[in-house]
Structure formats: structure tokens, C-alpha cells
Design goal:
Layout: H1 6-25, H2 29-56, H3 70-81, H4 95-107, H5 112-119, H6 123-136
Length: 146
């Protein structure tokens, strides 16, 4: 394993952590439990790689690859600072409220795919909600768009 670049190990470890967090957020405890041993083993590999690298030469370069990207670093910081006991957000149980959320997300320039993922729906369901909303929206003259 010593010939694998440390940044690749760290990226893989980070990806496993995110997969586990996603499973927990979606209430898939069994899936998260299956990822625990893999994540722990990868953490050990990363730590051993860091010790080896530190013994060879001190690190002076910023992280490379995905870990070097500012938006990914921000995502990691948010996930680290979020309390572990925070329950996942429950989808809106009221269909009218769910539809308002979908319309609001679309108005905020979220893509249909992102809305569908966020709401646990198919893209077609999101399109249907948005098309029904567009048809029932009054236009400026007070009539309805058909």
C-alpha cells in the first residue's frame, strides 16, 4: 500500500465518510453500519501514510486533487461541525407544502435533478409539479396561463 499516493488514500477515505454520512442522513443505518469497518480500515491506512510521509519529509504543499478545492473543504467543515445527533430532515408530509418547496427550489435556480434528489422523488414528478404550478399561476392581466 505504500506505493499508493497519500492524496488518493485521503480522497477515498473522505468519499467513504461522505457515503456513510449520506446513509445515516437518509435513515439507512444498515448501510452505514456496513461502511463502518471499511471506513475505519481506510482511516488506519491514511494515518499510516501520513506517519510515513512525515517521517520522510514535512508536508509543505497544500492538499491536491478534490481535497484542494475550496468548495469541497467547505463541505467537509460543515459536515465536521454538524452535531452527530441531528436527525435527518423529514420530507414534507403535506403534499401542498412539498409542492411549495419544489417551486421554491426551482425559483432558486436548482436543477430538476437536484430537486428530485433533495426531495426523494423522480425527475418526472418534479417536472409534473412544476408544470402544474406554471399552468395555475395567474399572469399579469389576472388570467391564467394555459
Amino acid at each position: 500500500m505504500s506505493n499508493i499516493p497519500r492524496v488518493s488514500l485521503e480522497d477515498t477515505y473522505t468519499l467513504l465518510q461522505l457515503m456513510r454520512e449520506t446513509a445515516l442522513m437518509k435513515g439507512r443505518q444498515a448501510q452505514a453500519d456496513k461502511l463502518n469497518p471499511v471506513t475505519e480500515q481506510m482511516r488506519t491506512l491514511v494515518e499510516n501514510s501520513r506517519k510515513t510521509d512525515q517521517a520522510a519529509a514535512p508536508l509543505t504543499q497544500p492538499p491536491a486533487g478534490i481535497l484542494g478545492q475550496a468548495d469541497f473543504q467547505q463541505l467537509l467543515e460543515v459536515s465536521k461541525n454538524r452535531p452527530a445527533t441531528q436527525p435527518p430532515a423529514a420530507p414534507a408530509s403535506d403534499p401542498a407544502e412539498r409542492n411549495r418547496l419544489i417551486v421554491a427550489m426551482a425559483a432558486a435556480q436548482m436543477s430538476e435533478v437536484d430537486i428530485a434528489r433533495q426531495m426523494g422523488m423522480t425527475r418526472e414528478e418534479v417536472r409534473l409539479v412544476l408544470s402544474v404550478q406554471q399552468r395555475s399561476t395567474p399572469n399579469v392581466q389576472g388570467g391564467y396561463i394555459r
